[in-house]
Amino acid sequence: KQGVASDSTSSAENNDQNDGESSNKLLKILRIITKVSTHWRSKLAFWKRLKKLKEPIKSNSLLNEEYKEFKDDELLEQIPQEVVQPSSIQSFLRIGQRVGVITCKTICVPTFNQKRFAHDLIIRKKTGKPIIKYGPGGRSSVSGNIATVFGCTGFLGRYVVSKLAKHGTQVVIPYRDEDSKRHLKVTGDLGQIVSMEFDLRNEQNIIEAVRHSDIVYNLIGRDYETKNFTFEKVHIEGAERIAKICKELGVSRLVHMSALNADVNSPSKFLQSKALGERVVKEQFPDVTIVRPGYIYGPEDRFLNRLSVFSYELMVNHGETLIRPVSVLDVATALEIMLKDETTISSTYELYGTKAFSIEEIYDIIDDLTLRKRTRFNVPKPIALAITKLLSYLPWPYVTPEDIERYCISDKPGKGVTGEVVKTFSDLGIQPLEFQDTAIQVVRRYRSNINFNQPMDKNVGRVKKGIYYVDY
């Protein structure tokens, strides 16, 4: 080691000598890896040898004569100066993590923070297809997965498509109406959203939609029956058709959307059909993941919006039915996690909110959030069924007899299709949002113009403002 003062102690000389030896080793490794190595095994050997240099290098002037020998080497021209002159092995690794890779003319040495490794190559057991992801993660990256989302144009489907495409998953969106899927095109990067026109009764359309996919989400459902699509045709026959085709084509994963309280003995035809749909799907695709959400609320829902729109409040069962509303964002997040979480295979999930509310309590929360007091009526169930039966003949019925039946059934956890214990949000590592804290995002639109921007807390003083206006 040069530059050591003549009056230095022998221990200091030994330390400097060790530092010099370590720095020489480091430089030799750099020279070898940049000049000779062109194979990934040599890269791996480089890092193994680097880890053996456990002695910290304390000297800041490392190169001296060594640098003179290497500085004119063309292979080292593109190595950053701070990488060639590290103050310690730790700082060398830290610099490597910052620059990402050390680039030379003959080789690109990966550092510890790189995003793509050998384990990113996943082979699906059933299909044998490789799934390769690349990119830093995000909208413009590629996750390597292809997902088909049936029911993508519905309330929940648009959130699922957005979350999948946000992380680089290519999403196939089967649709029936051209206008209903336009807003989904911008949820993913160019080429990541693939739209296909389909009919649930046409098997060839379903085959074209799922034959390239690694996972299929069946979110198709009806809240009320129509002439062409009854509960049986949609929830049972349609679900069975999708599950059968997925099994025949070797699709790795199938996620089937059911409903909380699904029971073949339920007084609600909707819940009966959902329970029967679970059975037939389980028979056709034994590894299916079944999801049973409670009442889902969000900006486009048919739950809170229906209870908030009128200036009066109608209840059945005296508003004593207990339900557990769940945010659409929580359900969409759970479905996104199921894409890669293999523990969700052949499982049943019941997704519901953290707290049970009666219908009357939900009306109270809506009135508090919208800052209005509405007249409340209790309608006997037979009368409500008769009225809604007449309303069901409208092209788009607002309330149906099925809604009345479901408003009389309290939410309660059940068992899986084969009697197994069901899983919940906690098994996916999700903490559901609180209903009373997030419902304002849905019902604020029903405030008057004077109170539109007022705080939601009763204890916060409200100053009356003028008519609400937009300040350009």
CATH topology of the largest domain: Rossmann fold
Strand order of the largest sheet: 7-6-5-8-9-10-15
- Total helices: the number is 16
Estimated share of beta-strand residues: 5-15%
Name of the top-level CATH class of the largest domain: Alpha Beta
Tally of DSSP β-strands:
17
**How confident overall, as mean pLDDT?**
78
Helical percentage:
25-40%
Radius of gyration equals 31 Å
CATH superfamily of the largest domain: NAD(P)-binding Rossmann-like Domain
* Alpha-beta content class: alpha/beta
CA-to-CA gap between the ends?
71 Å
The total tally of domains equals: 2
How many strands, what sense, and barrel or not for the largest sheet? 7 strands, parallel
Q: What low-confidence regions span 5 or more consecutive residues with pLDDT below 50?
A: 1-8, 35-44, 46-116, 460-472
Write down the overall geometry. globular
CATH architecture of the largest domain: 3-Layer(aba) Sandwich
